[in-house]
Amino acid sequence: MDHDTVIILRRHGNLAGPRLVLGHGNGLAIDLYYPFWSLLTDEFDLVLYDLRNHGWNTVGKLREHNIPTLVRDHERIHEAIDRHYGNKPKIGVFHSVSALITLLSATSGSEFSACVLFDPPLCKPDDSYEKFDQAVMRVAAMARRRTDRFKSREVFAGFLPYLPVFERVVPGVFDLVARTTLREAAGGMEYVLRCPPEFEAQLVDYARAFAVLVDFEAFRCPTKVIGADPTLPYSYLPTMDLSNILTVDYDFIPEATHLLQLEQPQECVAAMREFIDPIIRE
Fold first, then answer.
1. C-alpha to C-alpha distance for 62 and 38, rounded to whole angstroms
2. Residue of 258, 281, 274, 280 lying closest to 99 (CA atoms)
3. 9-281 maps to which CATH number?
């Protein structure tokens, strides 16, 4: 990405199949979404990557961990995918902050034949903004208070069932969170979060300014937004109902929260495929 930042691309699945490019949410890692994307490996050519300062990537400078930098990364990543793996049509499949980054890119989605966006953190610049802003500040404060060091992965995994955000996830996710979002600390005596709490919190802070800037009218590829159930109490940020936007194919997964791909992976795949299958066949 720049002189001291490297983002690692990985490729899985059927290399001759239609290409899907997958991105993850703030503080997480794309390998955590294995319950979702493992259902696609027989048919699709999957390209995965972690955002800078997440997952497989090393931790860089806090001052460069912001939405504008991640938008620039997004554009370079998709050029690199074509360069390394060959230029063929790509469908973007992004969750949360990576979906917001995609919507804010100067390319306006022109690098994709379609996009599927899972529960992007969006807000209308009207009366709902105050509620959204309060939620953003609450989530950022919680991230900054988060413990970032643990004696073992097992200790960390044992703590997760008590967090509301993980109440509905499928079996095995607690261990998967520990394996994908922790790394061994120097000396090997404990484990630390791959994305430090201050980095996660700073990205949440940036959402306050950028969540209202999305213009679906300007987006240049067919787009489906699959949201969390807007009737449920939210455990992250409020889910915005996009059913009144004519340029977006919008749906939500009943009884699912922000981590919908880890809660109902089969239903998420079915909703995504209903949208992309006709595009692939064209």
1. 32
2. 258
3. 3.40.50.1820
Q: Give the model confidence (pLDDT) of 250-278 as tens digits.
A: 999 999 999 999 999 999 999 999 999 99
Sketch the domain layout of the chain as residue ranges: 9-281
Burial class (CB in 10 A: 0-12, 13-18, 19+), 264: buried
Torsion of the alpha carbons at 11, 77, 203 and 242, rounded to the nearest 10 = -80
Nearby residues of 213 by Cβ (< 8 Å), 6 or more positions away? 104
DSSP state at residue 55: T
Token readout for 257 is: 């929260």
Q: How do residues 23-43 score in pLDDT, each as one tens digit? A: 999 999 999 999 999 999 999
CA distance 245 to 217: 9
Kindly list the distances between the CA atom of residue 128 and the CA atoms of 97, 113, 145, 201, 238, in Å, as whole numbers in the listed order.
Answer: 19, 32, 26, 22, 9
User: 165: burial class by Cβ within 10 Å (0-12, 13-18, 19+)?
Assistant: middle
pTM above 0.70, yes or no: yes
